[in-house]
Amino acid sequence: VIRAEASSVLRPPSVHLNQTFEAIVAGPGMIEETDARRLGARGVYVCVVGEPPDACHEDSLSRRFGSAASAAVWLEQRGITGRLILVLENASTAGVRSLGLRLACLGRASYVVVDRDADGPERVRQVVDEQMSRRDSGRVPGIDDDPSWTVVLPSEPALERVAESLGALGNGYCGMRASHEDARPSATPLQVVAGVYGVSDDAKLVPAPRWSAIGVDQPGGRRVLDLRTGVLAHIVDDEARSLRFVSVAQRHALALRAEAVGDAAQASELLIAPTAAAAFARSPVSDDAGARTEVAWTVADGHAGIATAIRERRRASAGRWVVERVAACVDVRPGEEPQTVARDRLDSIDHAGFDRLLAEHRAEWARRWAGAHVAIDGDAETELAARWAVFHLLSAARGEDEVAVGARGLTGPAYGGHVFWDADVFVLPALAALDPPAARAMVEYRIRRLPAARAAAAVAGRRGARFPWESAGDGTDVTPRSGINRHGDRVAIRTGELEEHISADIAWSVCEYAAWTGDQAVLAGPGRDVVEETARYWASRIELDADGGAHVRNVIGPDEYHELVDDNAFTNVMARWNLRRAAALASGSRGDPEEVSAWQALADALGDGFDPERGVYEQFAGYFAREPLIVADIGGPLIPADIMLGATRIAGSQVIKQADVLMLHHLVPDEVVPGSLPKNLDYYLPRTAHGSSLSPAIHAALLARAGRPDDALGLFRLAARLDLDDLTGTTAGGLHLATLGGTWQALAYGFLGVRVHADRLDVDPQLPTAWRSLTLRFWFHGEVLTVSAGHDSVEISSPVALVIGMSGSLHRCSPGTTLLAIGGAR
Ligand code: IFM
Question: What's the whole-number mean pLDDT along residues 680-695?
Answer without folding.
Answer: 97
